[in-house]
Amino acid sequence: MIGEFAATDAAQCARAGCRAAAAWRVNWRNPRIHTPDRVKVWPACDEHVGYLRDYLASRSFPVVVTALADEVESVPDGAR
Ligand SMILES: [Zn+2]
């Protein structure tokens, strides 16, 4: 799968200013601009995975959090 983010051991947390190594993938989509098969990925560290998920969920974007190595095919509507 070709994505915007390749899972590598160099993945860094997407939280602004955080340089910690990512342990999680925050998979999300903006239903207003992304088709259902589109998956955006933010790598996240242990500390910020909840912050990033809540940030997207508060905007009513579907979000699925997985381990860094686990890719998802899609982010269904209503996923939190
Ligand atoms: Zn972080």
Short description:
The model has no long low-confidence stretch (mean pLDDT 89). The protein has 80 residues and is α+β, with helices and mostly antiparallel strands.
Structure description:
With 80 residues, the chain is of the alpha+beta class. The longest helix is centred in the middle third of the chain and has 9 residues, at 49-57. The chain is globular. It has 1 helix and 3 strands; from the N terminus they run ββαβ. It has one domain. The protein has one helix spanning 49-57, and strands at residues 24-28, 40-44, 63-67. The mean pLDDT is 89. It is 11% helix and 19% strand. It binds zinc ion.
Layout of helices and strands:
Layout: E1 24-28, E2 40-44, H1 49-57, E3 63-67
Antiparallel strand pairs: 1-2, 1-3
Bound molecules: zinc ion.
Zinc ion binds next to loops.
Strand sequence of the main sheet, in spatial order?
Answer: 2-1-3
Mean pLDDT: 89
N-to-C SSE string, H for helix and E for strand: EEHE
Major sheet: 3 strands, antiparallel
End-to-end separation: 23 Å
Strand element count: 3
Small molecules (ligands, ions, cofactors) in the structure = zinc ion
Shape: globular
State the secondary-structure class: alpha+beta
Unreliable stretches = none
Rg, Cα atoms, Å: 12 Å
What is the helix content? 10-25%
How many structural domains does the protein architecture include?
1
Total helical segments: 1
